[in-house]
Structures are given as C-alpha cells and as structure tokens.
Design goal:
One of its GO terms (cellular component) is axoneme. InterPro entries: CH_2, CH_dom, CH_dom_sf, Spermatogenesis_Ciliary_MAP. The N and C termini lie far apart (134 Å). 71% of the residues lie in helices and 0% in strands. The chain has a domain at 35-116: Actin-binding Protein, T-fimbrin, domain 1. It is an all-alpha fold. 13% of the residues are buried. The longest helix has 34 residues, at 181-214.
Length: 215
C-alpha cells in the first residue's frame, strides 16, 4: 500500500462529499469501517452492481469483516479490483489512511468501468447514426416550449389556408365567384333563361313525337 499525497486526499474527500450517503459524514475512518458506506458509493455510480440488503450497519468486528469480504468478492471483483484480509482488518479497526487508500483505488476502478460502459453504448452499427439523429430531432421537438408549438400550429394553419385558396382559385367556378355582384346576377338570369328554353324545346319535341305517333 502506497501513501497518498495531500492533493490526492483532498480530491478524494471532495469526491466523497458529492455523494449522498445514508449517514452523516463525520470521520472517514469510522464512517467507512463497516463497509456499508463503501457499498453505497459503488451503488451511487453503478447501481446494478450492488444490493444494499447484503450489507448491514455493524459495530462488531465480525460483521464488519463480513461486509468487507462480501464487497471484495461480489462487488470489487466485478470492477477488476480486490483487496486483502490485512487491509480489511486495518479498516475495521479504524486505522487511519487505509480507508482513503481503498477509496482512491476504488474511484479509479469505477471511472474505468464507466468509461468502458460509455464506449460500448456509443459503439453502434453502420447506419444507426441517422436514426439517432432523427430520434434526437424528435426529442428536441417534444421538449420545445409551448410558444414553439403554437408557432408551428399557426404556420401549418397558414399553409393549409394558402393551399385551399390555390385549389379554389383553380376551380372552374372560381371565375364566376370572383366577378362583380351585378355580373353574377346577370349570369344567373342567363343561366335561368337558358334552362327554361331548354325545357321548352324538350317539351315541344316530346309533343311533336307524340303527334307523329298518333298519325
């Protein structure tokens, strides 16, 4: 075990202070002596590696050793790390400097583990970049402010109205509808007269046909 420099220790304390633990931080040697706080540190960064039900707060040396042995076998090993019984014995006896050493080593292993997991998650098959980009765009749209959605709705309404106007303007009846009101009235009169004349001609034709059949 090598001694840590002052900068390393202060950096370690700052790191621990940013982690929420179930018990107040008073004296690091005593706070971590039963292994529960150490399990909580790993749980904070990598929840799936730790089941806190396996670790009970303890005052007895035997229970403290059990907690640390469980950590060493079930948690540290999955991080590619392990410690020995001598160091565990020093930790449960509250000897200064040993907890700091374990936490310093553990911090490096946690950082390395998280870096590997991040690299795996970022590695993607060819062609998935565009999918992720589209997903990101949809996510950004979903997170847009109500004002953005309102602007989009107004834009869509304006566009639909413009398209509708274009269709109406191209409709054959649009020319008549766009005429002067007096011209529209005159057109209606012409249409009515033409319709009446057509009915009259048709009626005369039917009369002639009937007369011819009678002859």
């Amino acid at each position: 075990m090598h001694e840590l420099g002052e900068e390393d220790i202060q950096s370690l304390y700052t790191w621990i202070d940013n982690i929420h633990l179930s018990r107040p931080k008073k004296n690091i040697s005593r706070d971590f002596s039963d292994g529960v706080a150490c399990a909580e540190v790993v749980k904070y960064f990598i929840p799936k590696l730790v089941d806190l039900h396996n670790f009970s707060p303890a005052n007895s040396v035997s229970q403290k050793i059990y907690n640390w042995t469980t950590l060493n076998q079930k948690v540290f090993r999955r991080l590619g790390y392990s410690t020995n019984d001598e160091i565990i014995q020093c930790i449960v006896s509250n000897k200064p400097g040993y907890v700091e050493y374990i936490l310093y080593e553990l911090r490096q292993k946690i950082d390395r583990y998280l870096s590997k997991q991040s690299a795996k998650s970022n590695a993607s098959p060819t062609g998935s970049i565009s999918h992720e980009s589209n997903h990101s765009e949809h996510s950004q749209l979903a997170k847009a402010s109500p004002f953005t959605h309102m602007a989009n709705s107004l834009y869509c309404s304006t566009t639909e109205s413009a398209q509708h106007s274009h269709v109406v303007s191209n409709h054959p009846l649009s020319a008549t509808q766009s005429m002067d009101p007096q011209e529209n009235v005159q057109n209606q009169i012409w249409t009515s007269q033409g319709s009446n004349m057509s009915h009259k001609i048709a009626a005369e034709g039917n009369t002639t046909t009937v007369s011819g059949q009678g002859e």
